[in-house]
Amino acid sequence: MTDNDHALPIGAVSRMIGISSHTLRKWESRYALVSTQRTTSGRRLYTQEDIEKLILVRDLIAVGHQVNRLAALSNAELEELLSRSNADIDSRDVESVLIVGPVISATARLARHDFAAELEIVSADAIEWLAEDPDMESQDMIVLETPFLSQNHTEQLSQVARRHNLVLVYGYARTADLKALQSRGVVCLRAPVNSDDLRRTIESRHHKPLNKPTSVPIRRLPDEVITRISSMLPSIQCECPRHIATLLYDLNSFEKYCHQCEIDHPDDAELHTYLANITGVARASFEEALERVATEEGIPLENNV
Questions:
Q1: Do residues 114 and 88 both lie within one domain?
Q2: Domains in the chain: how many in total?
Q3: 38-to-22, 46, 52, 218 alpha-carbon distances in Å
Q4: 241 lies in a domain?
Q5: For the chain, which terminal residue's Cβ has fewer other Cβ atoms within 10 angstroms, N or C?
Q6: Is 166 among the domain residues?
């Protein structure tokens, strides 16, 4: 059996890790991030090692690294770099905060002496201010105020949240837009916000996005094998193989369901990616368990039996 027997096509990998197929192709052609195998028809196939590298690169980009500097690193080197980067983020205090908005800036200015962090205050409409492409790189946290939140605002703020700790103070917003921002780690506060609430939010840093597993194992057992084992009449006293196969069926189904939800519900794509990845890790553990139990009990797992 070769690595290609368990390799995945680009569409499945895109859904699994939350990176578009276009971006994956660009990472390969421009940076040689991975060197995929091809089918006879020319379709890309990603091995488990390829997928692990892509997930590591995705998470490193999220904490500020550039893809062109990651391409030459091994998976072990990427894991070490991600570990150091996360430790740096966790240990860093919020020392400088940029606050933009007409009302929240006045609130912060009156209570400036109560804040341990250094405040830079801008009395301007946050959305108009963002349109000018301002320099925000020197700030540990950014607080933006908008009287209402539209879908266009949500997309714009999501881009900001990719590179900065972001707090949003809003007047009116759709639940779907708020959930989309919160899934990206944005703290959303309904106006009016007093200085004590703002200070506590800053001092507690921000709500971190959901932690994702760094590796989602590829399936080792096809549906036909799981169906056959789950439908077997037990020939021994122990019914564990059948129970494990039933659990695997449920886990496989839920994993596929989560990947479909990523497409059907783009506002919650990050949450469903997280759920799919967690389920994939659990599924791999039960696959290993079924293989071990089947070996102990002499139950063949080959697909042609």
A1: no
A2: 3
A3: 17, 9, 18, 18
A4: yes
A5: N
A6: yes
C-alpha–C-alpha distance, residues 264 and 53, integer Å: 27
The torsion angle over the Cα atoms of residues 79, 80, 84 and 85, rounded to 10 degrees, is -40
| 182 burial level (CB within 10 Å; 0-12, 13-18, 19+) | middle
Which range marks the domain in which residue 283 is found?
A: 219-305
Give the global pTM.
0.42
CATH of the domain at 153: 3.40.50.2300
- Residue 210 in any domain: the answer is no
